[in-house]
Design goal:
Shape: globular
Radius of gyration: 19 Å
Structural class: alpha+beta
Distance between the termini: 33 Å
Protein name: Penicillin-binding protein
Low-confidence stretches: 296-307, 317-323
Organism: Streptomyces alboflavus
CATH topology: Beta-lactamase
Oligomer: single chain
Number of strands: 12
Strand order of the largest sheet: 7-8-9-12-11-10
CATH architecture: 3-Layer(aba) Sandwich
Largest sheet: 6 strands, antiparallel
Strand content: 15-25%
Number of helices: 10
Helix content: 25-40%
Length: about 325
């Protein structure tokens, strides 16, 4: 616990240590009303790593999708793309999926209603040798185009919510194409439009910077490489950065003064409900699920949990009106 953090965080840190006795590193960020606490325990590697802290980077897996959604909303605010743009606007004709009826739009990709499968065709073949350690590493942009060309949506666009890593990874690729043309890189675009303006200095898609080492049953695992679909899960971040981002999402007006107007608009737009799911009370925003919740103290919690990479994180933002969590599924 750092000096100046609220007294109640002492008990949370003790509970954190007790709940994860076998973990090499665990980090937790909490917001209770005006108070914030960022807690960490353990070391960044199981054997001999540096002490874990608020700025220790973890692979955040599907939380990356929430940043991809912010990038989409920011580009919409700029007028560079529109939510109802068909994906064929940004794809070569030969790479377009086989569609019946209505086109797939960028909004469909961001709400998991595109009908695209969870994983791209061909991923199992390219990643079989490393399926439990680095399944996306050998799946290239060429493989992605070939996969799209033979993909047939499982449902008509806009008719069903079906989680799709392929869909959100494709969204990141299309946004990159729209901003900088074919062959451009997603990571610099995300940093320029979202991460740097928000001051998220520990957040990036870079796999070559220090981070917590992932483990599986006590054995080290390599960092994930996702060259063709980085917008689906290539992010790394810290508990401190995730809390800062969630603060901005919960109150866009309180985001740093240097945040551009387009990003401030995106922070509000990204959690605007787009779809209501009958009988559940759930609503789907851009990647985020919004669920009814009992009145509670406002609390925001990025923490380690069961996402895909062995060094992993998750986030949940709760208010008295609703709880918000990103849609998620492995890998």
């Amino acid at each position: 616990m750092s000096p100046g953090e609220p007294a109640w965080s002492v008990n949370l840190l003790a509970a954190l240590r007790a709940a994860a006795p076998g973990a090499s590193a665990v980090a937790l960020a909490v917001r209770r009303g005006p108070d914030h606490a960022v807690l960490a325990t353990g070391s960044a590697a199981l054997r001999g790593g540096a002490a874990a802290g608020p700025d220790t980077r973890f692979e955040i897996g599907s939380l990356t999708k929430t940043f991809t959604a912010l990038l989409l909303a920011e580009m919409v605010a700029r007028g560079e793309v529109a939510y109802d743009d068909p994906i064929t606007r940004f794809l070569p004709r030969a790479a377009a999926p086989h569609l019946r009826g209505a086109p797939i739009t960028l909004l469909h990709l961001a709400t998991h209603t595109s009908g695209l499968p969870r994983l791209p065709p061909g991923l199992l073949r390219s990643g079989a040798a490393h399926w439990f350690s680095n399944p996306y590493a050998a799946f290239s942009a060429t493989d992605l185009r070939a996969a799209l060309a033979r993909t047939r949506p499982r449902a008509a666009p806009g008719t069903r919510v079906r989680y799709s890593n392929l869909g959100v990874g494709l969204l990141g690729a299309l946004l990159t194409h729209a901003a900088h043309g074919p062959g451009a890189s997603f990571a610099p675009l995300l940093a320029d439009r979202v991460l740097d303006p928000l001051g998220l200095t520990s957040t990036s898609c870079a796999a070559d910077q220090p981070q917590a080492t992932g483990h599986w049953h006590g054995r080290e695992r390599p960092t994930w490489q996702i060259p063709a679909l980085p917008g689906a899960g290539a992010g790394r971040s810290s508990a401190r950065d995730l809390l800062s981002c969630l603060d901005a999402l919960l109150d866009p007006a309180a985001a740093p003064a240097a945040v551009p107007a387009t990003l401030r608009a995106a922070l509000a737009d990204v959690t605007t409900p787009r779809i209501a799911l009958p009988r559940t009370g759930r609503r789907i925003a851009l990647i985020w699920n919004i669920r009814p919740a009992r009145p509670t103290t406002s609390i925001t919690t990025p923490a380690v949990r069961g996402a895909s990479p062995p060094s992993r994180a998750s986030a949940r933002a709760s208010t008295w009106r609703s709880s918000r969590s990103p849609t998620r599924a492995p890998p």
